């Protein structure tokens, strides 16, 4: 088969049943994408896979694969399939094991838009979720926590919605971090419409993800199904602000079901927008999380932040001034020389001298007047 | 011995050692108050009780008993001793068992001021404690929670300090409830001085308590020793607001040591005055308590509020209107006819007719234009 044939088959399969559809995944595992697509289209499936017929019945004869792929290409999106090296299989393992009847199965494929590697972006990631009708307190905490997480090299996963989701995405973007928006509609849709610009910005540096084929409109059941991906894609889920009834409670329930640590940010007991978060803590469902450090501890319960396992930057051989300059630079984003001097508490001349040496050694990299940490 | 002799002996003993002094309590248990006072004064104690000599050495020759008793009588206070029927022995049992070396022993006697029975006041009681430098949020929550607890027939115990303590006492007073202030100075002192009026009001309806003889000034170690009584006197301890370092943490530690359930009111993670309370919840030391109902559940973990065990008012034989009037009346305090009509949603005439019948049956009692629940 050609790549193009395979892509068409995957795109057909990704649209032929409302996800998640465990029966379809099982069929693809047995017959491969082309075989599975042909079997579904012809309604002739192996006896052991007859469960795939009902969920594909309505759409089997409608093949929008070429159109979907073309639409994606136009907006810079791509179809990520289970056989792709970038497929976040490890994160989705919990979904493979979850009850498919409860709409908890894994996705067959993901439509993704943005430069970030999906596997990387969800490898060390924190979901920040909460009410659409958030308070300024919730927005502030979500934004600050997202920025602090981004500074520590964590990506921030959320649902792209108004309120807490938006504040979390913006906080991560503002800190130059990676953020992942998981949509409940087609990757080509901008929902909510007021977040068109935000989703565009996310797609420029991070990732917008959907398991729904292009053109799919947002619907209530898709928000609930989407929430399981937000939980699955994260090392921990933090509910920043939630009223008595909030979609965040659904994401929180998915976190528990998938074995993801659940945290909640407390708020005033007089605030209606914190009733849900406070209740999760009071009921012992969520751990109280007051800052990004607590969120990271929650996501790394053995105290072994995954970052620790990564190779450390070799800074042992640096001179004291050089070390202070390196330590003044954030994990993401860059600083001007003035900002570095301020953060490091060093005279400008010393900073410039240190930067010159660090640039040569690969510890820092400069462009457009700002300096960031280098590859080394 | 005469009552007067016994009172003088108790007053002497209550002042001769800095409380708590387990050795002195043991001596009194063996020799009685007169024998113990004579033995301490003469420095001739049974061999098994030689441990009492050191803590009583400095004050043994100074007998201010008559003066202390007279001073108390002038301000309407009394000395409550371990042989008094009103002695809250059950609540103090945990202290008898606590480590005396950690200043955790039971008091030998208590100086009390106010009309409330000490045994009753601490029998169904909640400690609300927190920062002296509280925020308006903390003051509001403390006051509202205290009022709601008072409405449910709980007394509110606190330390009489500025901030949360004061707000809790005021809330209980405003709801016509019983509140208990435990002082870290003599019962005749008003500390803090700005709370002279508040302590006076508490003593009019509730109880001001101290284990320190009249004239004793407040000192740091006495606040810490006092805190154990606040915890012991309560079915549960609720930290309403506490910064990173707060005396409330000490009361909370006593609650844990004495086996009292510990609750904390969450607050904004951006608020310095909630850092301590949030940390207690995050660390699993305290349960998140959002309202008086949660506090009561915490204090009655088996769901069996002690009030349930008390004989219930017989309202089964009341007519519907009468029942609504009875249910409109708070557990403490009274309402005017207009207020009852509003609360019960009944016309004034119907309220008046119901009240007349209820007055006869003893379900309600009226005075000065307000009606309250009767003895029945």
Automatic annotation (TrEMBL), chains A, B:
Q: Which PANTHER family match?
A: PROTEIN SMF
Q: Which InterPro entries match?
A: DprA (IPR003488), DprA_WH (IPR041614), DrpA_SLOG (IPR057666), WH-like_DNA-bd_sf (IPR036388)
The entry's family comment says: Belongs to the DprA/Smf family.
Domain named Smf/DprA SLOG is located at 79-291
Task: Identify the coding gene.
Answer: dprA
Q: Name one Pfam family in it.
A: WHD_DprA
What Gene3D superfamilies does the record point to?
3.40.50.450, Winged helix-like DNA-binding domain superfamily/Winged helix DNA-binding domain
Q: DprA winged helix domain: which residues?
A: 310-368
- Name this polypeptide is given: DNA processing protein
One GO process term, biological-process aspect: DNA-mediated transformation
Q: Which domain of life is it from?
A: Bacteria
């Amino acid at each position: 088969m050609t790549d193009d044939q395979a892509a068409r088959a995957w795109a057909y399969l990704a649209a032929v049943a409302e996800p998640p559809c465990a029966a379809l995944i099982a069929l693809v595992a047995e017959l491969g994408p082309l075989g599975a697509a042909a079997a579904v289209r012809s309604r002739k499936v192996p006896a052991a896979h007859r469960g795939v017929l009902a969920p594909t019945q309505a759409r089997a004869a409608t093949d929008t694969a070429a159109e979907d792929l073309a639409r994606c290409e136009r907006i810079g999106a791509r179809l990520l399939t289970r056989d792709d090296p970038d497929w976040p299989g490890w994160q989705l393992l919990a979904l493979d094991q979850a009850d498919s009847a409860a709409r908890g199965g894994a996705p067959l494929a993901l439509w993704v838009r943005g430069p970030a590697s999906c596997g990387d972006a969800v490898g060390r990631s924190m979901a920040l979720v909460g009410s659409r009708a958030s308070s300024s307190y919730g927005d502030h905490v979500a934004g600050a926590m997202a920025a602090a997480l981004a500074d520590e090299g964590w990506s921030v996963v959320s649902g792209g919605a108004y309120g807490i989701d938006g504040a979390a995405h913006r906080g991560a973007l503002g800190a130059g971090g990676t953020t992942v928006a998981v949509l409940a509609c087609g990757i080509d849709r901008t929902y909510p419409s007021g977040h068109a610009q935000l989703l565009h910005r996310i797609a420029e540096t991070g990732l917008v993800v959907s398991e729904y084929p292009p053109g799919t409109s947002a619907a209530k059941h898709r928000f609930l199904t989407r929430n399981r991906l937000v939980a699955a894609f994260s090392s921990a889920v933090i509910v920043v602000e939630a009223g008595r009834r909030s979609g965040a409670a659904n994401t929180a329930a998915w976190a528990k079901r998938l074995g993801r640590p659940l945290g909640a940010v407390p708020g005033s007991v007089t605030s209606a927008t914190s009733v849900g978060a406070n209740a999760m803590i009071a009921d012992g469902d969520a751990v109280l999380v007051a800052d990004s450090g607590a969120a990271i501890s929650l996501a790394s319960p053995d105290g072994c932040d995954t970052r620790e396992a990564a190779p450390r930057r070799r800074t042992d051989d640096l001179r004291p001034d050089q070390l202070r300059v390196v330590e003044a630079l954030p994990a993401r984003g860059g600083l001007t020389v003035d900002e570095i001097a301020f953060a490091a508490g060093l005279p400008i001349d010393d900073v410039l001298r240190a930067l010159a040496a660090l640039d040569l050694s690969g510890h820092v990299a400069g462009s457009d007047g700002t300096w960031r940490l280098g590859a080394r």
